[in-house]
Amino acid sequence: MCAGYVFMAFGMPGSLFIGSVVVAVCYGVRLAVSVPTASELFGLKYYGLIYNILILNLPLGSFLFSGLLAGLLYDAQATATPGGGNTCVGAHCYRGVFSVMAVACVIGFVLDVILSIRTKRVYAKIHEAKKASRLAATQRVS
Q1: Would you list the DSSP string of 16-34?
Q2: Mean per-residue pLDDT over the chain, rounded
Q3: Where are the extended beta strands (E) located within 41-97?
Q4: Which of 23, 59, 60, 80 is the most buried (most CB within 10 A)?
Q5: Do 119 and 37 contact (CB within 8 A), yes or no?
């Protein structure tokens, strides 16, 4: 996802389209992976609550990055117009926003790597339990 934001920050012709596609694919993968991950790590007893907490980042991030940050950085780059508004034309208007979002993605990636290292033992236990249950099932059949 970071690569998509960096690509959009360059401001080359077509980079907004290509960067948007990359970011959209990454969001889709993230949503598809979070469902089984939440159920495996936390179980199904409070799955609805846990999943809603995990998905809360989408509207919260949209509000913080798109609503507040993009607006503030756009206004900082824009020049005042005689009619009382601000205007900005060119790739430099949102370069700061895309750069901040890319940094946020790198931080998220680092946190994901830390989470995967910390949950390696959990997944090993899950794998061993499944292996033991399969072995017990095959012994009962024989």
Answers
A1: HHHHHHHHHHHHHHHHHHH
A2: 86
A3: 79-80, 86-87
A4: 23
A5: no
| Backbone torsion region of residue 43, taken as left when φ is above 0, otherwise alpha when ψ lies between -120 and 50, otherwise beta | left
Q: Cα separations (Å) of 101 from 18, 65, 70?
A: 16, 8, 10
- Angle in degrees, CA 65, 101, 32, rounded to 5: 90
Task: Give 142's pLDDT tier (boundaries 50, 70, 90).
Answer: low
State the DSSP H helix or E strand holding residue 81, giving kind and residue range, or none if neither.
none
Cα–chain center distance at 54: 11
- Condensed to tens digits (0 to 9), the pLDDT of residues 11-48 reads 888 888 999 999 999 988 988 888 888 887 788 888 88
Q: What is the largest CA-CA distance in the chain?
A: 86
**Is residue 95 within 8 Å of 11, Cβ to Cβ?**
yes
